[in-house]
Amino acid sequence: MNASTSPSLSPQDQLKQAVALAALAYVPRGEIIGVGTGSTANFFIDGLASMKADIPGAVASSEATAKRLASHGIKVVDLNEVTALGVYVDGADEIDPRGHMIKGGGAALTREKIVASVAAKFICIADGSKEVPVLGKFPLPVEVIPMAREAIARQLAKLGGTPKWREGVVTDNGNIILDVHGLSITDPVATEALINSWPGVVTNGLFAARKADVALIGAAGGVKTIT
Ligand code: 5RP
């Protein structure tokens, strides 16, 4: 456990908090940054509150993140108002040794991908359970326009996976999520591009074309940095 993490948290949350606090060192003073979504990103936002005077604001990757940033008095900036972001800090559901990730467990993948695309550096913060040799054990989320749900599910099944509709979930963009189980993604760049090429797909949760530049991985021995 890191000296600055909270002992009242579960061991996994302590690792999430440790990597989130380590990511504060990557925040460029005086610059607007991009902020991800999820429980690890939430620890980062809570830590960012301690240095809110050092940044002019942050671009949020979801409504939930915007709310949490605002609750700490951190200015939420519209992406259309910025031309560059120094860093984007976010968690992941899986990360491979090359920094390719699966994201979207929290259904925020599209906005996450948009904000990440504008950032100079993607800092991935994750506890050690997210490290995998090959992506795919975590079901791959795909955001889909509602009318294309069954058509895209048939296409995804042809890839060898089993798509399941995340019923009851509507994304911040008004779309649905298909989670694809049972894939072994050996070429994440090609798979990301292929799925994204199908009409009706908004985006998929593979972050491979734009992968992590730095991964901060939490383990019992401390925070491991992979660049
Ligand atoms: C949300 C995401 C999250 O980054 C991912 O699901 C990891 O979440 P957590 O930090 O709660 O484990 O992609 O869409």
TrEMBL record:
It holds the Pfam family Rib_5-P_isom_A. InterPro entries: NagB/RpiA_transferase-like, Ribose5P_isomerase_typA_subgr, Ribose5P_isomerase_type_A. Substrate binds at residues 37-40, 90-93, 103-106, 130. CDD domains: RPI_A. It catalyses: aldehydo-D-ribose 5-phosphate = D-ribulose 5-phosphate. The keyword Acyltransferase does not apply. Keywords: Isomerase. The active site is at residue 112. GO terms for molecular function: ribose-5-phosphate isomerase activity. It is an enzyme of class 5 (isomerase). The keyword Isomerase applies. Its EC number is 5.3.1.6. It comes from the Bacteria. Pathway: Carbohydrate degradation; pentose phosphate pathway; D-ribose 5-phosphate from D-ribulose 5-phosphate (non-oxidative stage): step 1/1. NCBIfam families: PRK00702.1, rpiA. Catalyzes the reversible conversion of ribose-5-phosphate to ribulose 5-phosphate. Belongs to the ribose 5-phosphate isomerase family. This is Ribose-5-phosphate isomerase A. It comes from Piscinibacterium candidicorallinum. The gene is rpiA.
